[in-house]
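Supplementary Methods. Inverse-folding protocol.

Structures were first reduced to a discrete structure-token string of length 70. This string, shown here, constituted the complete conditioning input.
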């Protein structure tokens, strides 16, 4: 097989994988921020907790928009 054709095929096969990983990150980001906020609450660090809650809410709305819910 021609090397150029193989590279084009591998590049085209990588695009759906990159989209899948991107949506996976979008779904996991609010959950990760939630656990970071809980950890900050355990150590009585309310400023950091509110920051993580804000990032979690922002990433939640971005995920809902990207997934087509909003």
């Amino acid at each position: 097989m021609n090397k150029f054709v193989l590279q084009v095929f591998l590049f085209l096969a990588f695009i759906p994988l990159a989209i899948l990983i991107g949506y996976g990150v979008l779904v996991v980001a609010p959950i990760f921020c939630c656990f970071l906020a809980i950890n900050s609450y355990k150590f009585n660090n309310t400023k950091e907790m509110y920051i993580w809650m804000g990032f979690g809410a922002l990433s939640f709305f971005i995920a809902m928009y990207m997934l087509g819910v909003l």
